[in-house]
């Protein structure tokens, strides 16, 4: 699987990360399937609440409303545009999932909500400018695997 992160999304993400400073933030990722196994992130949410220096817990209502609006904008073309996963920042830690992140994502894909796979993006700013990020794929009944970012 490959994921594209367009420049305009990167710019918006950098602004959100600068604003949050050393506090963790996050939300959901909305994607467009370009071909099987190849997705482009086309929107994301940022939770109204910031986390702490070493944790973030996403709320639900705000993101459900954003997903509903996204589906309305994309004419409910779920085969092409859909929920892709979650993201949050690690401003003080490496951009790889923590054990808590891994458990949370495995609970998501192995749970009762019918989500067979989800991508987790972890992001941070280095020197308040360079956007560092990683992508991890979580699939029902499988171990997580790091995935590559597709060239733009």
- Stretches with pLDDT under 50, minimum 5 residues: none
Strand arrangement in the largest pleated sheet: 1-3-2-4-5-6-7
Range of helix content? 25-40%
Radius of gyration: 14 Å
Report how far apart the termini are: 15 Å
How many helices does DSSP assign? 3
Describe this structure in words.
It is built from 3 helices and 7 strands. It is an alpha/beta fold. It has a 7-stranded mixed β-barrel with strand order 1-3-2-4-5-6-7. The protein is globular. The two termini are 15 Å apart.
Topology:
Elements (H helix, E strand, L loop, with lengths): L1 E3 L2 H14 L5 E10 L2 E7 L16 H13 L7 E9 L9 H12 L6 E10 L3 E10 L5 E5 L3
Parallel strand pairs: 1-3, 1-7, 4-5
Antiparallel strand pairs: 2-3, 2-4, 5-6, 6-7
In short:
This protein has helices at 7-20, 61-73, 99-110; strands at 2-4, 26-35, 38-44, 81-89, 117-126, 130-139, 145-149. With 152 residues, it is α/β, with parallel strands linked by helices. The mean pLDDT is 88.
């Amino acid at each position: 699987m490959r994921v594209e992160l367009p420049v305009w999304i990167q710019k918006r993400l950098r602004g959100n990360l600068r604003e949050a400073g050393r506090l963790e933030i996050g939300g959901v990722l909305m994607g467009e399937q370009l071909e099987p196994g190849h997705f482009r992130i086309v929107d994301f949410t940022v939770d109204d609440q910031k986390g702490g220096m070493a944790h973030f817990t996403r709320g639900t209502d705000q993101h459900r409303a954003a997903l509903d609006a996204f589906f309305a904008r994309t004419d409910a073309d779920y085969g092409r545009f859909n929920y892709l996963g979650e993201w949050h920042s690690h401003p003080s830690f490496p951009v790889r999932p923590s054990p808590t992140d891994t458990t949370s994502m495995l609970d998501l894909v192995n749970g009762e909500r019918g989500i067979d796979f989800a991508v987790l993006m972890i992001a941070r700013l280095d020197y308040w400018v360079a956007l560092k990020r990683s992508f991890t794929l979580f699939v029902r009944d499988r171990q997580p695997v790091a995935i590559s970012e597709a060239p733009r």
